[in-house]
């Protein structure tokens, strides 16, 4: 994802693009343009939007001189709650009614909070302008509140001041301590006076002070001409992740340190953001809702297909069960042709089989029927009636021919004695119906 930082400074406009990948930032490109007439800003935004990467998050950094600040002591540490409380806390103490202001909070040391606010209409104008040019900012912040990531590793535990000629920030042990926009035409002298006032008023001694931005780059260059305005403060050291983001290009790193600090805050934490409440960024939410809508449609489609598959399986299983039930009913009617109505065909068949398999009957009946079934052969189509009374067996069936009946009679000799065939009736197709009688042999009883 590309992070596009649009940093509006007092006299220039900076575009810086960073690529965020796996939590690491890398510098892609940047451009710096002087700001003269008011109409130059819309033109520059339009020209940059035409070449900006399609996949991007746009962050606007406004000048610090458009902000108002005041230190407060509040028994809270949650920035969201502090932000909601500030309009009530500062009611009647601001030049403009608090309803026309947008508030943010920066926790400081010793339980103090820096209340920061900007005029709503000024922010709305900038947001509207950038949105009209296709660069709607997701976050509106100020660079100086994110400079703690620029503190060199070797002085992290010291009291460090950082300036870009337009703002001053003081940190102790890497934590914010003091912020101030520079308002006079001599920023370096104002920085010196401010640090002296801090030492007298708060007993705060700054161990090191560094500069960054275009003026620090000139100060670091041995080729700077005599008439160039340079900073008397040493340029910001470039090392660690700061140097890695710019692939070791020290001059570019110092020049774009403010934009890098904003990108780093976006990538790793919760930056100061004046787009809240009625000015909250909603385009991202709309994109998220659109993505969620697509996901929801896919999920619903999946559920529909799942139920369709379950319904199809249920239909096929029901069809198989109905076919099985019909087969059972057919067998039942063949087994019990005289019964008019069955209550439960399966239960009745199971009961009859158990009855045949139990008691004295099972020792005679089932073996006899088994032998007769084995003797039937293919030429005897079926035996549709079998009656056994004592040791007398009476069978009725259909056969292919009279010879088939005689063959069946011969094959029953192992099971029956005194076998007789009677009442043979011929049909036009040559088949016959027959009646066979016999007595169960003693060996089969």
Q: List segments where confidence is low: pLDDT < 50 over at least 5 consecutive residues.
A: 221-228
The radius of gyration over CA amounts to 49 Å
The CATH class of the largest domain turns out to be Alpha Beta
Query: What letter string, H or E per element, gives the SSE order?
Result: EEEHEEHEEHEEEEHEHHHHHHHEEHEE
Largest sheet: 5 strands, mixed
Lateral strand order in the biggest sheet: 3-2-1-4-8
Count of individual domains: 3
The rough form would be described as rod-shaped
CATH domain fold name of the largest domain: Nucleotidyltransferase, domain 5
Q: Indicate the structural class.
A: alpha+beta
Number of helices: 12
Note the gap between the termini: 92 Å
Helical percent range? 25-40%
Kindly state the mean pLDDT as a whole number? 85
- Quantity of strands, as a count: 16
Output the keywords.
single chain, 445 residues, alpha+beta, Nucleotidyltransferase, domain 5, Gyrase A, domain 2, 3 domains, five-stranded mixed β-sheet, four-stranded mixed β-sheet, 16 strands, rod-shaped, transmembrane
Q: Could you please describe the fold and organization of this structure?
A:
The model is unreliable at 221-228 (pLDDT under 50). The chain starts with a strand and ends in a 5-residue tail after the last strand. The longest helix is centred in the last third of the chain and has 53 residues, at 283-335. The chain folds into 3 domains: 2-280, 2-Layer Sandwich (Nucleotidyltransferase, domain 5); 293-357; 364-440, General secretion pathway protein M, EpsM (Gyrase A, domain 2, 2-Layer Sandwich). The radius of gyration is 49 Å and the shape is rod-shaped. The chain has helices spanning 40-51, 79-89, 120-132, 187-202, 214-220, 240-245, 250-255, 257-268, 283-335, 345-357, 361-376, 402-411, and strands at residues 2-8, 12-21, 24-34, 56-61, 68-73, 101-107, 112-119, 139-141, 159-163, 167-172, 175-181, 208-211, 380-389, 392-399, 416-426, 432-440. It contains 12 helices and 16 strands. The protein is of the alpha+beta class. The chain is 39% helix and 27% strand. A 5-stranded mixed β-sheet has the order 3-2-1-4-8, sandwiched between helices. One of its GO terms (cellular component) is type II protein secretion system complex. Residues 291-433 form the GspL periplasmic domain. This is General secretion pathway protein L.
């Amino acid at each position: 994802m590309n992070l596009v930082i649009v940093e509006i400074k007092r006299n220039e406009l900076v575009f810086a693009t960073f690529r965020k990948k796996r939590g690491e930032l890398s510098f892609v490109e940047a451009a710096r343009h002087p700001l003269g007439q008011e109409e130059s800003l819309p033109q520059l935004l339009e020209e940059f939007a035409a070449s900006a990467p399609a996949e991007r998050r746009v962050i606007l950094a406004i000048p610090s001189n458009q902000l108002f600040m005041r230190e407060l002591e509040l028994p809270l540490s949650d920035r969201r709650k502090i932000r909601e409380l500030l309009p009530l806390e500062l009611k009647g103490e601001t030049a403009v009614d608090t309803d026309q202001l947008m508030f943010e909070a920066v926790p400081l040391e010793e339980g103090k909070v820096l209340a920061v606010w900007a005029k709503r209409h000024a922010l709305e104008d900038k947001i509207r302008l950038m949105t009209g040019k296709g660069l709607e900012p997701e976050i509106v912040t100020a660079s100086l509140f994110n400079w703690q990531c620029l503190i060199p590793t070797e002085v992290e535990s010291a009291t460090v001041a950082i300036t870009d000629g337009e703002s001053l920030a003081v940190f102790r042990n890497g934590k914010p301590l003091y912020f101030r926009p520079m308002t006079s035409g001599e920023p370096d002298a104002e920085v010196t006076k401010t640090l002296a006032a801090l030492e007298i008023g708060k007993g705060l001694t700054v161990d090191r002070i560094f500069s960054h931005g275009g003026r620090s780059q000139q100060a670091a260059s041995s080729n700077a001409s005599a008439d160039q305005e340079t900073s008397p403060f040493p340029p910001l050291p470039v090392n660690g992740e700061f140097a890695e983001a710019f692939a070791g290009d020290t001059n570019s790193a110092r020049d774009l340190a403010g934009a890098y600090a904003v990108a780093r805050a976006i990538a790793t934490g919760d930056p100061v953001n004046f787009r809240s409440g009625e000015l909250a960024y909603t385009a991202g939410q709309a994109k998220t809702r659109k993505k969620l809508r697509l996901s929801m449609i896919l999920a619903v489609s999946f559920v529909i297909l799942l139920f369709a598959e379950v319904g199809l399986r249920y239909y096929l299983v029901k069809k198989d069960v109905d076919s099985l039930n019909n087969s059972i009913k057919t067998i039942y009617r063949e087994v019990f042709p005289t019964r008019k109505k069955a209550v439960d065909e399966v239960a009745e068949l199971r009961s009859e089989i158990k009855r045949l398999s139990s008691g004295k009957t099972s020792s005679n009946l089932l073996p006899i029927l088994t032998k007769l079934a084995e003797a039937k052969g293919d030429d005897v189509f079926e035996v549709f009636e079998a009656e056994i009374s004592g040791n007398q067996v009476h069978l009725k069936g259909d056969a292919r021919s009279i010879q088939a009946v005689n063959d069946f009679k011969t094959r029953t000799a192992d099971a029956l004695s005194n076998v007789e065939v009677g009442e043979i009736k011929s049909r036009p197709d040559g088949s016959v119906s027959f009646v066979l009688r016999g007595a169960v042999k003693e060996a089969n009883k």
